[in-house]
Amino acid sequence: MNRSLCQPMHTAEVLSATDLQYRPTDRTRTGTDSIPDVTVLDRLGVVTRDPFDAIGAATFVLSCVTDFYDAYRAAADDFYAYPDYFTFQSDGRPVDYRWFDIWPDHKNVETDPDAESVLRAVNDRAIDVLLVPDGPTNDPDLEAVTREAFERRIDECYLYAPDGRLDESSFSISLPRDPVRKWVAEDALRYLPHDA
User: Fold this and answer.
1) How many CA atoms, within 13 angstroms, populate the side-chain half-sphere of residue 13?
2) For 118-173, how does the pLDDT look when each residue is reduced to its tens digit (9 = 90+)?
């Protein structure tokens, strides 16, 4: 099974900040203030428990990616850049999330499933914004140096639901159906097997 989410699809060519809607409690906004305290220079990481969990964080990631490319577009018409965004996966065969501009593929990091291994990988990549899947919690047994480095470096940490629907959220991000439909119709469907 090919565990890639298609070819790198520069969202800079498909999405803009006005395509995303951010809803803190009862207000709706669009634009670069879409996620509190996340900047285009931040290094974002998404921890997964199961291979395709990060799909539940897709609108968060795409909002950050879109802000990243909007900032580059404002500075120059011609640029070549990808944000420093990573996934941390522990199921043995990392999913390639290039469709969310988490690319090149070495940014989909394979880890052991224990908290120490995951946080070492997060620390090694200087992640400062972390998305973790909602679910059962515990107090992991961590080496002091790992815990201290994590607590010192992480600026923001957000819960996401692997199915995209967090029960008690302080904000939500949505992507209207039309850009998604166009994106899927023009890009993703051509990667289906010919006999499908």
Assistant:
1) 14
2) 999 999 999 999 999 998 888 899 999 999 999 999 998 888 888 877 677 666 66
Cβ(131)–Cβ(164) below 8 Å: no
Please provide residue 49's backbone torsions phi and psi, each rounded to the nearest 5 degrees. -100, -40
Which residues pair with residue 103 across a beta bridge?
A: none
Domain boundaries, the chain: 11-190
CA 129 to chain centre: 10
Tokens read off for 2:
């090919």
Task: Say what the pTM is.
Answer: 0.78
Where is 47: in which H helix or E strand?
strand 44-47
DSSP 36: T
Which alpha helices (DSSP H) does the chain contain, by range? 58-75, 115-124, 144-153, 177-186
What local confidence, expressed as pLDDT, does residue 7 receive?
46
Short-list 19, 17, 15, CA closest to 175: 19
Reduce the DSSP state of residue 172 to 3 states and report it: strand
Dihedral of CA atoms 130, 131, 136, 140 in degrees, nearest 10, equals -20
CA distance 80 to 45: 21
